[in-house]
Every structure is written in structure tokens, then in C-alpha cells.
Write a structure and sequence with these properties.
Strands 1, 2, 3, 4, 8, 10 and 12 form a 7-stranded antiparallel beta sheet that branches. The chain has a 7-stranded parallel beta sheet with strand order 6-7-5-9-11-13-14, sandwiched between helices. Strands 21-19-24-25 form a 4-stranded antiparallel beta sheet, with no helix packed on it. Helices cover about 20% and strands about 25% of the residues. A hairpin with a 4-residue loop joins strand 2 and strand 3. It contains 10 helices and 25 strands.
């Protein structure tokens, strides 16, 4: 897929390998890192470090600078003054926000059960970045799919550093640290988390070993969570922007904390500008939430259902308006499964397998399916990819806050069904209404009919007629009498001023050899 790397792209060198990270201060998810704040500057500030030093109280320490996001991580000399400091910063010229550097944690709940079948292999040209605790990249089922275009297959942001640079605080090796130390692992050890997530999205298929991931896409490991399973908001933002720069097509975030953060908005916006999909878990609080960062700020927030019964919401899953899709989030093994319930190890010298549950496990299912969709159609734009995933999702009978658009469907992502969505505006006579037409799948789109329900003083003979132009789905172009074509896929409906109040009802049909779908839209005409 496309290379999103900036000037710092390409293979990483060992020039910073002698950095000694400062261990992060741990706490609970949603709590602030003690004394740490994030300052977001406007994009016209040229020297972020200097501006941060000038804006922050005397004695503050600039820990990190992210030039891509115009953001700086600062350690204050007095953590008790954080609230007053942030309030004062908000009023300064050039500062767009000042907020706490909140703690985030992995979204898993321990061993349980899950199974799902991935039916189509993906392409190594598509890269899924796993922002997590690091991936055991020499695992027998992961090594063949690791992205070798970057040294050590990724980067480590889990620590902080006093040395500044393009991506300060990074380590050149994202390998899980307990493996490096040779410590034994157990199935409830959270440092297995990133390896499990990577296995779900892209463990090697058809190699006669272990399990198969949802896709055969490449894996990029971005370590943003430490050995305790937690990290910070700035780590996450650094990780997202780095993944975009180093060629990721999909970014998976199986982590989160209560509330939202401005720094996540900036990171997701950076991904959006570069056409990179961000997917995050909805959280495991068993509650309905309005906000859960970054899950409620990414392109796709994912809840979890029981793998053996996809019409049942997993008991641990959060719900809310931010849920866009659902996927299996509980795991079990059987001899027929092609879903990688999870990869971890009980002995650093031995590759083994186990099952875990959580929305951490459902998010990489969606990321893997997104990888399949991009493998099948590398030309999909970000908006088209989201539409393919959402319109192809299956309704499993849950509420919209529980399932979003529905249960992600790999077959529909690879071969999208024919869908149609028509939207319209309300306008005054003499104005122009936008008629939006969105489609997925292969087929034709036809304007079938238009009729009016006019107000007093008009007759049906005033209604414009429609010329039925047949076009391919996704390339919507119509020619209407009394109407002006706008940029596809939006139609501009010009309403002459002689028309009185009433409404247009437009019927559009999409069809192929297997399916016919029809949608109507009412455009209200309001008298001046």
C-alpha cells in the first residue's frame, strides 16, 4: 500500500540505542501522569520546544516534542499546580489546548473463549500497526508476517527520555521486555497482550503451524504500553503519528481510558489526512459511555460479542454512541478454528498459544478484516474503506449502541454487497439542494422516478422530469431536467423560484445480477 513516511522514513538507525528511559509513573487508567501535561500549539508556532519552555512555569522540564501534531509533553515542578497551570496556558497566544497526560491501559479481561473463521488471505503489501505492549516478533506464527522494512519491525515509546528529537523517548526495539530479560510468562501476564493482538489480526496462515490470523497482512509493532500494561496519552499520540509515517495502512489500538483527550483528536486527524484507518476497542467497563478515549475518537470503535453466540453482547463490553462495529471478543480453541485466539508464551524459548477475552480482542478482528478489504481493493480511500466495513456488517439483533452498524463481516469486506444510501436537503425556491448518493459493490445506479407534493398555487405539471442515466455503482452521475450536476457522488438539485412550497421525492435504484436495492429521499421546498 501507499508509503506515508515523512522525511524520517526508512530504516531506523542505532544512533539512539544508548538512551536510558525514565520509568513512567504508573496509576489507574484515566488518571493523569503525576506532574505531566500536554500543550497543543497552533500550527503557526515554529519552535515548539522554545514556546513550551516560555509558556510553562519556571523549572518545568520539556520531555517530548511531536512536530507532526504540534504538541509538547511537559513535566511541571509542582504537580499540585497542574489545574491552575493548564487554565493559564489555555489563555496564552498560540496555545490551543493544555491537558493532563492521562494513563491508558490494555483492554483485556483475562482467559476465556473465542472462535471465528477468516476465509480469505490478505496481502503483505497492507500493513497493520499494533500499538500495544510490543510484539514477540520471533514467534513462529508472527515472524513471517512482521514488517521488515523497519529495523526490529517497529519502535518503542513505552518509556520517556530527557533527550529531545523527532520522536524523542523512542527505543529502536519494541520486543516485550520480559522476553528480553528471560523471565517466565504466565497466561495472566499482561505483557502477552501485544503478541495476542498481533496474532488475531495477522498471524501467519497456511504455514502448518499454530493458528491463523484474520489476514496475512504485515505487522508493525509500536510499543506504547509498558510491562504493567499501561502507558500515556502522549505515548499513544506519538505511536499513531509514527505508524502513519512508517507506512501503516491500519492502526490498531486495543487500549483506552475513561474520557477523551485533545491529543488523540490531533493524532487521528493526522492519520485521517494520510488515509490511514484507526481502530480501537470500546473498553471493558460493562457500561454505557459517552466518551472512552481513544475509542470514541478513532474512525472505528469496536465492542465485543460472544464468539459462540454473536447475538449476545460480551458481559464486559462497554457500549455507547461511539461504537461503530462489533466483533468476537471471547476466545476458545478447537481443532477447526482459523481464528487466532491468541499467541503468548510460558517459556521465552518456546512459542505457545492461549485464549484471552476483551474488547482488546475484538478490535484486531476489525483491523484484520480492514486489511483483507484493502488487500482485495488497494485503491479504496479511507472513507470508502469505512463505508465498506460498515455497510457490509451483519445486524445481529443488538441495539445500535451495542453493535454500531453490526458485526464485521470478512466476506462482505472482500466482496462488498450492493448497497445504496440517498440523502437530501431542505431549501428555498431558487436555491440548490445537495442529493448525496453513496454505494458499495458492483452494479448500476438509475434514477427511477421523481414526483412532487406541491403546495397551494402550483400544479403537478410544474414538476421536473428525470432522464434515467445508468451508471456504475460508486460513480454516480445523473442528468436531470432543470437540475445541475455537482461533483460525484453529490447531485445538485436546482429549484426554480417559480416553484411554491412542497417536496420532491426522488427514488433511486441500484441493481446487479444478484440484488436490487431501492432508496428514496424527500427534499423539502420551503416557501420564502
Amino acid at each position: 500500500m501507499g508509503d506515508h513516511r515523512g522525511n524520517n522514513g526508512g530504516e531506523r538507525s542505532d544512533e539512539n540505542s544508548d538512551r536510558v528511559p525514565t520509568p513512567p509513573r504508573e496509576g489507574s487508567a484515566g488518571d493523569p501522569r503525576d506532574g505531566e501535561i500536554i500543550i497543543g500549539f497552533s500550527d503557526d508556532v515554529s519552535d515548539l520546544e522554545a514556546e513550551a519552555r516560555a509558556a510553562a512555569p519556571s523549572g518545568s522540564n520539556v520531555l517530548r516534542v511531536n512536530e507532526r501534531l504540534d504538541a509538547v509533553l511537559v513535566e511541571l515542578p509542582d504537580s499540585a499546580a497542574m489545574a491552575d497551570t493548564m487554565a493559564g496556558l489555555d489563555s496564552q497566544d498560540g496555545v490551543e489546548f493544555a491537558e493532563e497526560n492521562v494513563i491508558v491501559s490494555a483492554d483485556d479481561v483475562g482467559p476465556a473463549a473465542a472462535v471465528e473463521t477468516a476465509t480469505t488471505l490478505g496481502s503483505s503489501e497492507v500493513t497493520i500497526a499494533v500499538l500495544d505492549q510490543g510484539v514477540k516478533y520471533d514467534h513462529e506464527d508472527l515472524a513471517p508476517n512482521m514488517d521488515d522494512s523497519v529495523q526490529n519491525f517497529g519502535v518503542d515509546f513505552a518509556g520517556t527520555s530527557t533527550e529531545l528529537g523527532e520522536y524523542p523517548g523512542e527505543d529502536t526495539d519494541p520486543y516485550p521486555k520480559k522476553f528480553e530479560a528471560g523471565e517466565p510468562w504466565y497466561e495472566n501476564d499482561t505483557e502477552a497482550h501485544g503478541t495476542q493482538v498481533a496474532g488475531i489480526s495477522a498471524a501467519r496462515a497456511d504455514n502448518g503451524t499454530g493458528v491463523s490470523g484474520i489476514s496475512n497482512c504485515s505487522i508493525l509493532s509500536v510499543r506504547v504500553l509498558g510491562t504493567s500494561g499501561s502507558g500515556s496519552g502522549f505515548d499513544i499520540a506519538d505511536g499513531i503519528s509514527w505508524a502513519v509515517d512508517f507506512g501503516a495502512d491500519v492502526v490498531n489500538l486495543s487500549l483506552g481510558s475513561p474520557g477523551e483527550a485533545d491529543i488523540y483528536d490531533r493524532a487521528v486527524e493526522y492519520a485521517d489526512e494520510n488515509g490511514v484507518l484507526t481502530v480501537a476497542s470500546a473498553g471493558n467497563g460493562s457500561t454505557e459511555r459517552e466518551e472512552y478515549g481513544p475509542g470514541s475518537q478513532v474512525h472505528l470503535g469496536v465492542s465485543a460479542v460472544e464468539s459462540g453466540d454473536d447475538s449476545t453482547l460480551a458481559g464486559f463490553s462497554n457500549t455507547g454512541d461511539y461504537v461503530d462495529l462489533t466483533a468476537p471478543g471471547t476466545s476458545y480453541f478447537n481443532t477447526e478454528t482459523t481464528y487466532p485466539a491468541d499467541l503468548e508464551t510460558g517459556d521465552p524459548s518456546t512459542d505457545t498459544y492461549t485464549g484471552f477475552s476483551g474488547t482488546s480482542m475484538s478490535a484486531p478482528v476489525v483491523s484484520g478484516v480492514a486489511g483483507l478489504a484493502l488487500s482485495a481493493d488497494p485503491d479504496l480511500t479511507l472513507d470508502e474503506l469505512v463505508r465498506v466495513l460498515e455497510t457490509g456488517a451483519r445486524d445481529v439483533g443488538l441495539t445500535e449502541k451495542e453493535q454500531g452498524a453490526g458485526h464485521v463481516d470478512a466476506a462482505n469486506a472482500v466482496d462488498p454487497p450492493l448497497t445504496l444510501d440517498v440523502t437530501g436537503d431542505s431549501i428555498n425556491p431558487g436555491g440548490t439542494a445537495e442529493i448525496g448518493v453513496e454505494t458499495t459493490g458492483a452494479g448500476t445506479v438509475t434514477v427511477e422516478d421523481i414526483w412532487t407534493d406541491w403546495g397551494v398555487g402550483s400544479t403537478d405539471t410544474d414538476a421536473p422530469t428525470v432522464t434515467n442515466d445508468v451508471v456504475e455503482a460508486g460513480q454516480v452521475e445523473f442528468s436531470w431536467d432543470d437540475k445541475q450536476l455537482a461533483t460525484s457522488p453529490v447531485l445538485a438539485l436546482d429549484v426554480p423560484s417559480r416553484y411554491a412550497g412542497g417536496r420532491y421525492v426522488l427514488t433511486v435504484t441500484a441493481k446487479n445480477d444478484e440484488t436490487t436495492v431501492t432508496d428514496t429521499v424527500t427534499v423539502e421546498i420551503t416557501s420564502e
